[in-house]
Amino acid sequence: MGGKTLTRADLAESVYRKVGLSRTESAQLVEMVLDEICTAIVAGETVKLSSFATFHVREKNERIGRNPKTGQEVPILPRKVMTFKASNVLKNRILETHKKAKGKA
């Protein structure tokens, strides 16, 4: 599954090319958007990016887990986790791309 990793620098470069801001302004814009998303998620808010995905923080209760090496039961403490749910638009784009790639092979 070795694909290219999209980085902050890649996002900033894309903004630079498509919007026409300077490279510095593009990088600052990307940082501001990511910072705003992170701040909302840390505050426990749901972040919905229409046609992309929803990020949601949910609580997980304490449960009993097992050390796979020893088989010993250990408690897993309650915690908050972030979930990512892709939108139907994104899911359909992935499916269509997969179908096209499979058709070429």
Measured as a percent range, the helix fraction is 40-55%
Order of helices and strands, N to C?
A: HHEEEEEH
Q: Using the coordinates shown, work out and report the CATH topology of the largest domain.
A: HU Protein, Chain A
Largest sheet: 3 strands, antiparallel
How far do the termini sit from each other? 16 Å
Main sheet strand line-up: 1-2-5
Secondary structural class = alpha+beta
Number of structural units classed as domains: 2
The level 1 CATH classification of the largest domain is Few Secondary Structures
Rg, Å, rounded: 20 Å
| Average of the residue pLDDT scores | 93
Number of helices: 3
* Count of DSSP strands: 5
The CATH homologous superfamily of the largest domain: IHF-like DNA-binding proteins
What share of the residues does DSSP label as strand, in percent?
A: 25-35%
Identify the CATH architecture of the largest domain: Irregular
InterPro entries: Hist_DNA-bd (IPR000119), Histone-like_DNA-bd_CS (IPR020816), IHF-like_DNA-bd_dom_sf (IPR010992), IHF_alpha (IPR005684)
GO molecular function, one term: structural constituent of chromatin
Keywords: DNA recombination, DNA-binding, Transcription, Transcription regulation, Translation regulation
GO biological process, one term: DNA recombination
